[in-house]
């Protein structure tokens, strides 16, 4: 199958990530009761080899989920450990861990935040692609990046990865968030091709007050 896509649909590849981010902000606002906003600094399509460099191997908090419907693949959220603790403690004040890791309550809070973020992000993709996308159970991992990838099942056998660098602001908490989306490219292209070319893409990409990009 050819991977060619009508040039007028290329904006959809940006829009699926932007809409997914907007959904994350909406979901976090509902969950925490605080206004959440996401500032998207960069959306890239990177080769898998460049992603391995981009990822590094520092200790991070990872939340990954498998897509069980087209476009299949995985979505991986990576957060700085200190940011993650602040976000967790905004939900469970006074339950902080004095050690380098996470308390059971913090892990539980981050897992729940991960559930909200992954479902919101994937719902955003589904809205743009005019489909439904089922997913598995999000999984929390804390450790070096290579360990997080191993827990995800290893590097997917695809060449292209969506990488979204962003910052979540919730109350007084700023959290750096990087989202790696590893779709099955052929399945994603099929979904994009199926979208009506007469869809007004420009009207669908009006700036949202909860989502900004440099």
How much β-strand is present in the residues?
A: 25-35%
The order of strands across the largest sheet is 4-2-3-6-5-1-7
- The H-and-E topology, N to C, reads as HEHEEHHEHEEHHE
Q: Stretches where pLDDT falls below 50 for ≥5 residues?
A: 199-214
- Ends distance: 35 Å
Major sheet attributes: 7 strands, mixed
Fraction of residues in helix = 40-55%
Structural class: alpha+beta
Number of strands: 7
Summary?
With 214 residues, this protein is an alpha+beta fold. Helices cover 42% and strands 26% of the residues.
Structure description:
This protein is an alpha+beta fold. It is 42% helix and 26% strand. It is built from 7 helices and 7 strands; from the N terminus they run H-E-H-E-E-H-H-E-H-E-E-H-H-E. It has helices at 11-32, 48-55, 81-91, 104-129, 145-152, 185-194, 201-204; strands at 36-47, 59-66, 74-79, 139-144, 160-170, 173-182, 211-213. A 7-stranded mixed β-sheet has the order 4-2-3-6-5-1-7. A hairpin with a 7-residue loop joins strand 2 and strand 3 (74-79). The longest helix has 26 residues, at 104-129. It is globular. The chain starts with 10 loop residues before the first helix and ends with a strand. Residues 199-214 have low confidence and may be disordered.
Question: Which keywords apply here?
Answer:
single chain; 214 residues; alpha+beta; 7 helices; 7 strands; 42% helix; disordered C terminus
């Amino acid at each position: 199958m050819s991977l060619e896509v009508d040039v007028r649909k290329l904006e959809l590849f940006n829009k699926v990530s932007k809409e997914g981010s907007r959904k994350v902000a909406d979901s976090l606002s509902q969950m925490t009761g605080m206004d959440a906003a996401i500032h998207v600094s960069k959306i890239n399509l990177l080769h898998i080899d460049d992603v391995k460099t981009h990822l590094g191997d520092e200790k991070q908090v990872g939340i990954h989920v498998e897509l069980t419907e087209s476009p299949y693949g995985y979505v991986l959220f990576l957060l700085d450990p200190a940011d993650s603790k602040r976000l967790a403690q905004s939900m469970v004040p006074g339950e902080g861990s004095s050690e380098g890791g996470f308390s059971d309550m913090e892990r539980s809070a981050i897992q729940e935040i991960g559930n909200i973020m992954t479902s919101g992000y994937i719902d955003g993709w589904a809205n743009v692609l005019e489909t439904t996308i089922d997913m598995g159970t999000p999984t929390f991992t804390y450790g070096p990046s290579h360990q997080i990838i191993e827990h995800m099942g290893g590097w997917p056998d695809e060449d292209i990865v969506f990488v979204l660098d962003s910052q979540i602001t919730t109350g007084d908490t700023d959290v750096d968030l990087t989202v790696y989306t590893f779709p099955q490219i052929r399945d994603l292209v099929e979904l994009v091709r199926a979208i009506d070319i007469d869809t007004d893409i420009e009207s669908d990409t009006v700036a949202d007050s909860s989502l900004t990009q440099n």
